[in-house]
Amino acid sequence: MVEKVYGVGVGVGDEKLLTLKALEVLKKVNKVFVPISKKGKKSIAYEIVKDYIKDKDVEELLFPMIKDKEKLKEYWNDALKKILNEDGEVAIITIGDPTLYSTFSYIWKLLKENGINVEIINGISSIFASASALNIPLVEGDEKLCILPQGKDLEKYIDEFDTIIVMKTKNLKEALSKIKNKDDYIIGLVKRVTFDDEKVAIGKFDELNFDEFNDYLSLAIIKKVKK
Amino acid sequence: MVEKVYGVGVGVGDEKLLTLKALEVLKKVNKVFVPISKKGKKSIAYEIVKDYIKDKDVEELLFPMIKDKEKLKEYWNDALKKILNEDGEVAIITIGDPTLYSTFSYIWKLLKENGINVEIINGISSIFASASALNIPLVEGDEKLCILPQGKDLEKYIDEFDTIIVMKTKNLKEALSKIKNKDDYIIGLVKRVTFDDEKVAIGKFDELNFDEFNDYLSLAIIKKVKK
Questions:
Q1: CA-based torsion, B11, B16, B20, B26: positive or negative
Q2: Interface probe, candidates A8, A10, A19, A165, chain B, greatest B C-beta count within 10 A
Q3: Which residues of A touch B106 (CB under 8 A)?
Q4: Pick from B14, B119, B146: which is nearest to A21 by CB?
Q5: Which residues form a coiled coil (chains A, B) (predicted)?
Q6: Are the beta carbons of B139 and A100 separated by less than 8 Å?
Q7: Beta strand pairing call for A145-149 and B145-149
Q8: Does B195 touch chain A (CB under 8 A)?
Q9: CA atoms of A213 and A209, how far apart (whole Å)
Q10: CB distance A122 to A186 below 8 Å
């Protein structure tokens, strides 16, 4: 039976954004599990680390992007069974950081419920890598920050937080169109940060071509213009 | 004159949480600048990376923790002068990630204003490392998250966000005491995450001994109990 499961964040795209600890763990485990959302579809997390784990035993775990919770539970339980059947230490890789909107969190919960020793290896998150790509800080001093998936409640918080991150949507334009007084805000858009096809833009709402950012691996960083 | 300045996040304490890229940059630059808050006081960022940069030319930059903005500007301008006087590429190290409440952001702004090429090398932030230490996710699915320095406006947002992080204070108890209906929330406290003297606790407000967490490198992660 499995002794320990590492939840390893592999960062955002650039394979050099892996931590030394993540690399050490991937080298030492008996198997690396790779979550995929569809059979035959490439795993982004695997693409990031594949050069480091060439001789490693790798197995896919299928977590389809469906809403039906009962159906999803079947997939999680299948994954759990596969993991429990391993010997010694194994790793499950995930893009970004395993604690922030990660598919890993579902299987993490199940592993804990089953008394399995889980250790999280943090990874660089897209929220930080995107601020770097835009060459701006997320927050300074005593500023407040919030993350709103799909721009949920954006109109409510737009003037209360110094920085707002909108992520987890393919349609940033729609998510941000709720903003009134659009000229009062500077918006940074980043798509597929640190990948070869990374795209970055910064400006006011009407100056931006949102069409280039219709990708699930996109996010927006919104800041009020200081007057 | 200096050609390029790297703002390098060195993570939270464990030297293995450095990224491969950060290590590569620290090895190649001509000089590593180390921010300190007081003359003679050890730099935490330097302590994290010192074994990697034994033969490196290292220079301190003094950024005292004072409120007087005019006085602070003098220190920043002194630091800027030192950096501009270097040749080739240099690095400035900072704990955590350089985009989140970093001392680096002040000098970053000055460097940009002076037309200097700046590249940010992201680091593991305490917000992620603390969630790992607590063995809980920060946010899942479509949950909303906010970061409130010193617990600013905590009473306003406590029931609107799924997860609230309070940081940048030595007195978490005072910052969190504003919460009404304290039994409705699970609070995770983490001090000096991944350091040898790391401390972790999780529970309801009245179950926690806040005295053990009176440290600037502490934070609280607050979640509503799901009923």
A1: positive
A2: A19
A3: 140
A4: B14
A5: none
A6: yes
A7: antiparallel
A8: no
A9: 8
A10: no
Q: Which of residues 70-99 of A touch B (CB under 8 A)?
A: 97-99
Q: pLDDT of B34-93, one tens digit each?
A: 999 999 999 999 999 999 999 999 999 999 988 898 999 999 999 999 999 999 999 999
Q: How far is CA B163 from CA B101, B213, B222, in A?
A: 19, 20, 6
- Can you give the pLDDT at residue B67? 85
pLDDT mean over B1-17: 97
ipTM higher than 0.95?
A: yes
B161-191 tens-digit pLDDT: 999 999 999 999 999 999 999 999 999 999 9
Supply A21's token pair: 């600890």
Helix/strand number for chain A, H first, E second: 7, 10
Q: Convert the pLDDT of each residue in A114-151 to its tens digit.
A: 999 999 999 999 999 999 999 999 999 999 999 999 99
Q: Which domains does chain B have, with CATH numbers?
A: 2-121 (3.40.1010.10), 126-224 (3.30.950.10)
* Tokens encoding B108: 């970053």
CB atoms A20 and B18 under 8 Å: yes
CB–CB contact A131 B120 (8 Å)? yes
Mutate to test the interface with A, among B10, B19, B167 (most CBs of A within 10 A): B19
Beta-carbon separation of A19 and B21 below 8 A: no
pLDDT at B65: 85
CA distance linking residue B130 with residue B118, whole number of Å: 29
